[in-house]
Design brief:
single chain; alpha/beta; Metallo-beta-lactamase, Chain A; Arc Repressor Mutant, subunit A; seven-stranded mixed beta sheet; five-stranded mixed beta sheet; 11 helices; 14 strands; binds zinc ion
Length: 303
């Protein structure tokens, strides 16, 4: 892990795969996200210990395992409280909810209960009910729904930790159909990040540290374009006739020129395509049609 100082109070703890936040006041600190597992939790503990800091709290941007997997170890070592939004706390406290929801709300198979999908459980409190904590640390907490329903961003001293609201170019090249659960909420979140907040830095959880609002705007636009392109590909594909969910996944993957060979990656794309379908259904653009006991999606006739 490598420590990068952003300003007097704000640091980024960088590993190969994730950026964690460290906010320091006097000899006290809070961390934003804790990484994938107990090893990352221990490494964060060792680092703040070496700096002579007392951990006062953990804030999780959202309840994905790679963001809160180190919580349990850190809480055990420091007894620090954990904060996130009320929705995300459900996932912290009951980590099985993540593979459970990914697998259509049934007891998920073991293949989805690995550490990338299911972290050790953690305590959690609703950060919006802890105004004293927010004020003491001079934070602004911003709801950023879309990648998950309850993701939050954290602003301190002109530095905005935006979680997985968007992905940098490298990550999008590797995962060209970015995971999302609410496409319309995400587009609104991204528009807000682009236009409303003029923070000097935006810190993305996976590799991206954008030092000017101009850089951040470019990468946000890149993300918005990709999401809108996939939306259009799915809609245009439905113009050609009835399509199954799997055919829509195929259309999205062919558009981004990817041949997916890994079930777990494919599964996340099915979930993401479902989020696009939910939006298309709610806007009365598509409707479900069952033919020969097969579920298809059909464009709604506007005649
Ligand atoms: Zn995530």
């Amino acid at each position: 892990m490598h420590l990068k100082q952003i300003n007097e109070n704000v640091f980024v703890i960088q590993s190969r795969t994730i950026n964690l936040g460290l906010i320091v006041q006097d000899k006290e600190c809070i961390v934003i996200d804790t990484g994938l597992d107990k090893t990352s939790g221990q490494m964060v503990y060792n680092l703040i210990n070496e700096m002579g800091l007392q951990l006062q709290a953990i804030i999780n941007t959202h309840g994905h395992a790679d963001h809160f997997g180190g919580n349990q170890r850190l809480v055990k070592l420091t007894n620090a409280p954990v904060y996130s939004s009320a929705w995300e706390i459900n996932f912290l406290k009951s980590p099985m909810l993540e593979p459970f929801s990914l697998f259509c709300g049934v007891n998920p198979p073991q293949i989805l209960k690995n550490k990338f999908y299911m972290a050790p459980s953690s305590p959690g409190e609703d950060i919006f009910c802890n105004k004293d904590f927010i004020n003491t640390w001079g934070l602004e907490i911003v709801p950023l729904p879309g990648h998950t329903l309850g993701m939050i961003g954290i602003i301190k001293n002109d530095v905005f930790f935006v979680g997985d609201a968007y992905f940098c170019k490298n990550v999008l090249d590797k995962h060209p159909v970015p995971f999302l659960v609410d496409v319309d909420a995400l587009i609104e979140t991204l528009a807000m990040l682009k236009d409303k907040y003029d923070c000097y830095y935006q810190i993305n959880s996976h590799q991206g540290i954008y030092s000017t609002s101009q850089n951040a705007r470019q990468i946000i636009d890149f993300n918005i374009n990709r999401i809108e392109e996939i939306y259009n590909v799915l809609e245009k594909n439905l113009d050609k006739g009835l399509k199954t969910s799997e055919e829509l996944v195929k259309a999205a993957l062919e558009y981004v020129k990817v041949e997916c060979r890994t079930y777990l990656v494919y599964h996340l794309i099915i979930v993401t395509v479902n989020a696009y379908l939910a939006s298309l259904l709610d806007k009365d653009i598509v409707e479900p049609v069952i033919r020969n006991n097969i579920l298809y999606w059909s464009k709604v006739s506007k005649m």
